[in-house]
Amino acid sequence: MITRRCVSKRRGAKVSAALTAAALSLALPQGRALAADWPQESLRGSFTTEAPVRWDGINFGGHFGLSTMDTDFGGGTGQQVAYILRESTLEQEARPSSWAALPHNITNSRSYGAFIGYSYQMQDIVLGFDAAYNRMSSANADASDTLTRGVTTSDGVGHIVTIDARSSVKLVDYATMRVRAGYVMGQFLPYAFVGGAVGRFNYSTRSTVTSAETPPAPALPYVYGPITATDAKDNAIVGGVAAGLGMDIALLPNLFLRGEWEYVGFARVNGIRTSINTGRVGLGMRF
């Protein structure tokens, strides 16, 4: 009895083991497939720093910044003074039109705008171009001053020349077209850029010239002037150059944060030279 019961138990254990092995063999491929697919399914559409970041394609976004505008009014009165003193010995020899009657002026402004561009990636090098629009909130500058100098011309006449001037300029907005070159460092893309710019300005300048003149005896002293010239214009289009540095940071595969510094130097507008330095942050998408 004991022997038969032991044999029966052993046979039952063998049957149970065989059934368990068969079940595992049927379930094992499916289990392996699920185990292999699970990490991919759970990470699909997510972003990790281990995954390579691609920067090529079209990108666009918006930005906000703070700008410092440096305006040199020194040449703003030149054309007007030259016109007032045209064909005179005073202008031909002493050239009061070249005198810097007005100083520099520095003003701050907020700016905001949008950009769109395209990038092409070659391993760790990213090349591209972009166009951007920037609207200024309060990029206004003005200056006023009076300059007096005494000169004697070759005809023996002494001149006490006074230039009383006032000028103002406003940068309404500007656009840039830039080429960029960057180097991929994981999810970071530092880059440099150069390009051109076009700005829209409003300006106004007024110059008044007075000359107290003392000719050789027996002629009597006399005063030339005051004579005033005024020039003003809205929406004057002025070209310039742009350059700077920046960095894009990938937040998600198609979303990036941008920070950059940009310098734009504009050509003279009515003798006034303006440059602007801007630090900005932006948020963009790539596809």
How would you sum up this structure, described in words?
This protein has 287 residues and is α+β, with helices and mostly antiparallel strands. The protein folds into two domains: 44 residues; 230 residues, Porin (Beta Barrel). It has three helices and nine strands; from the N terminus they run H-E-H-H-E-E-E-E-E-E-E-E. An eight-stranded antiparallel beta barrel has the order 1-2-3-5-6-7-8-9. Strand 8 and strand 9 form a beta hairpin. The N terminus is likely disordered.
How would you summarize what this structure contains?
The protein is an alpha+beta fold and 287 residues long. It has helices at 2-43, 78-84, 89-93, and strands at 57-72, 104-122, 125-136, 140-152, 158-183, 188-214, 222-252, 255-266, 273-286.
Oligomer: single chain
How much of the sequence is in beta strands?
A: over 45%
Strands of the widest sheet, in order across it, are 1-2-3-5-6-7-8-9
Helix amount, in percent?
10-25%
Do you know the CATH architecture of the largest domain? Beta Barrel
Q: Structural class per helix/strand content?
A: alpha+beta
Number of helices: 3
Low-confidence runs (pLDDT<50, min 5 residues)?
1-10, 15-47
Give short descriptive properties of this protein.
2 domains, 287 residues, alpha+beta, disordered N terminus, Porin, 3 helices, 9 strands
Layout of SSEs?
Elements: H1 2-43, E1 57-72, H2 78-84, H3 89-93, E2 104-122, E3 125-136, E4 140-152, E5 158-183, E6 188-214, E7 222-252, E8 255-266, E9 273-286
Antiparallel strand pairs: 1-2, 1-9, 2-3, 3-5, 4-5, 5-6, 6-7, 7-8, 8-9
